[in-house]
Amino acid sequence: MGEFSATVPMQRAVTVGPRIPVVPGFAQRAVVAERSAPSSPKQAGKALRGRVPRNSHDSLVLPAGRPDAVQAVEESSRGRVRDLAPIRVGRMAATPFAFLRGSAGLMAHDLMGTPVTGVGAQLCGDAHAANFGLYGDARGSLVIDLNDFDETVFGPWEWDLKRLATSLVLAGREAGADEGTCRQGAYDAVGAFRRTMRLLARLPALDAWNAIADEELVSHTDARDLLGTLERVSEKARNNTSARFAAKSTEESEDGGRRFVDAPPVLRRVPDAEAAAVAAGLGDYLGTISEDRVPLLARYAIHDVAFRVVGTGSVGTRSYVVLLLDHRGEPLVLQVKEARPSALAPYLPTVGFEVPEVAHEGRRVVLGQKRMQVVSDILLGWATVDGRQFQVRQFRNRKGSVDPVALTADQVDDYGRMTGALLARAHAHSADPRLIAGYCGKSDELDEAMASFAVTYADRTEADHAELVRAVGAGRIAAELGV
């Protein structure tokens, strides 16, 4: 890497700056409803049924002026790396489920016309079935939870739940399950969300905050058919580490350190100036993590930086992997991933949710993630590189995930129940579970309605996907398939 090939010690690369001040209003909406509600949140939730009947959640009325599939993809690609756009289109064109993964903004546009109670929660924003997975905590144990927060924002809890339910229908169809099984997966996800909210509402506040431990999750959701799959994923996740990635993706450099090896189009080394800018950005990053983590990172030196293509919906955003080595040559890899405004933000005001000004998009992602997870990456932070905003996190932190399109028919409903419970627990960190539980109630009225919505919107997504495939075939939009 020319001049940049010299290692950059983390402790000399930066001066730790002051904490970035908290942005007023970021997390206040969660308590506004509680302060203005009647003395019983449960009764307040029940009262909402009169204004928004639970069976009304089966409706889908597409707003006027809805963009077609190609327009939606092109609009969401603005500001991304132009050369990577065909890869993103190719990945979205692969299957209807893949199209859904890349079209969070389009679904948010469509959800504007659906009923909401007005009760807010911190949303994942992209809570489809493939965005749940395993990752390692600080002591090496595996945790299962939501694991993608690029679109996180405060908004109506129904939007996350409807996206999850729809994704289960599409994943089930792709896996070859019959229509009844696919609908059952959506129905069970909503039912698990509802029952988990009722459970959390009955617990002491601290117990509810830390609820749904790994060892209890399968029994809580009656997901025993998933046991074998979860065990296999766990075993694979334990080996999915920075060291393993570095062993496959780097080589020894002339100075005795290591450097990345080009593996186009997914991984490529970057020019010295670009690498130096990323390294400089990590200086400010040190001021965004907990102060007790700074001495840990001070024991590493930056050795190399590479650009790495990620995800489906994220393709085209700028994403770097940074190789750090300690005094023994043991690697730690950080991901520095561009943070763009949430795709949901433009549509929230139409349903009564104001979006506060965001001081830093990476900060939004990190704070949203910490607000939804029980346990988060200890190195989460944010940085600015050449004027662009990024989130920073560990790369390959014992991560693993269940592939929802590879599930057998008897596992779809189990996976739905597990993910529905996890989503409820995540929402309960910012919304009073008593309020949502009061609205959802004991019956399956909400489960039936949202399952019907999920089937309807899955059909809509299949039509959008078919339109994109036709456009690719006609040359209207470029696509690189199979990457």
Low-pLDDT windows of residues: 1-6, 11-37
How many helical elements? 19
Alpha carbon gap, first and last residue: 27 Å
Q: How many β-strand stretches?
A: 13
Largest sheet report: 7 strands, antiparallel
Mean pLDDT score: 89
Estimate the helix proportion, in percent. 40-55%
Overall geometry: globular
Main features:
two-stranded antiparallel sheet, alpha+beta, 7-stranded antiparallel sheet, 483 residues, 45% helix, disordered N terminus
Topology readout:
Blueprint: E1 8-9, H1 10-13, H2 29-36, H3 41-51, H4 69-76, H5 85-92, H6 96-101, H7 104-111, E2 120-123, E3 132-136, E4 142-146, E5 153-156, H8 157-175, H9 179-202, H10 205-209, H11 214-221, H12 227-238, H13 242-249, E6 250-252, E7 258-260, E8 267-269, H14 272-285, H15 294-297, E9 301-308, E10 319-325, E11 331-338, H16 361-372, E12 381-385, E13 388-394, H17 409-427, H18 433-440, H19 445-473
Could you provide a short overview of the structure?
Helix content is 45%, strand content 13%. The chain has 483 residues and is an alpha+beta fold. Strands 1, 8, 9, 10, 11, 12 and 13 form a 7-stranded antiparallel sheet that branches. A two-stranded antiparallel sheet has the order 2-5. The protein has a two-stranded antiparallel sheet with strand order 3-4.
